[in-house]
Amino acid sequence: MMGHGVRHEVSVRIPIDAGFGLWYDKSSYPTRMPKSKIAITVDSKILGEVDELIARKRFPNRSQAIETALAEKLDRLNHSRLARECAKLLPKEEKAIAEEGLSTDVAEWPEY
Q: Does residue 4 fall inside a structural domain?
């Protein structure tokens, strides 16, 4: 019998990545992020693969599987943008800028 005012928390772990054993601990986030309901059209073969992941308990439902896939894709796109921007840098110029103040005598540096 549970006492009054005693709260028992149960950790709910949901897998978020089909191959790497990553888990989303639902109980560690007490408030839900606002979500929007949408309708999408998905290729039958892809949807079949998603359903297979759900059957193997990799995701609790289609929504979570698709949301995770979208989040991962957006993350990869953001990282590839960073890589593209870094590729625009000229290494010799960046090195010269970084080393600009290093040639002076340490004794001339301001005191902190």
A: no
The answer to whether position 67 is within a domain reads yes
- Does residue 57 fall inside a structural domain? yes
Assigned token pair, 71: 């989040």
Pick the closest to residue 29 from 53, 49, 12, 47 (CA basis): 12
**pLDDT tens digits, residue range 62-100?**
999 999 999 999 988 888 877 888 888 888 888 877 777
pLDDT band at 6 (very low <50, low <70, confident <90, very high): very low
Hey, what long-range contacts does 59-62 have (CB within 8 A, 24 or more apart)?
Answer: 59/14, 59/15, 59/16, 60/14
CA gap 8, 26 in Å, rounded = 15
Number of domains in the chain: 1
Its domain, for residue 57, covers: 13-97
Asked if residue 69 is part of any domain, the answer here is yes
pTM over 0.85: no
Question: 14 pLDDT band (50/70/90 cuts)?
Answer: low
Integer Cα distance of 87 and 80 in angstroms: 10
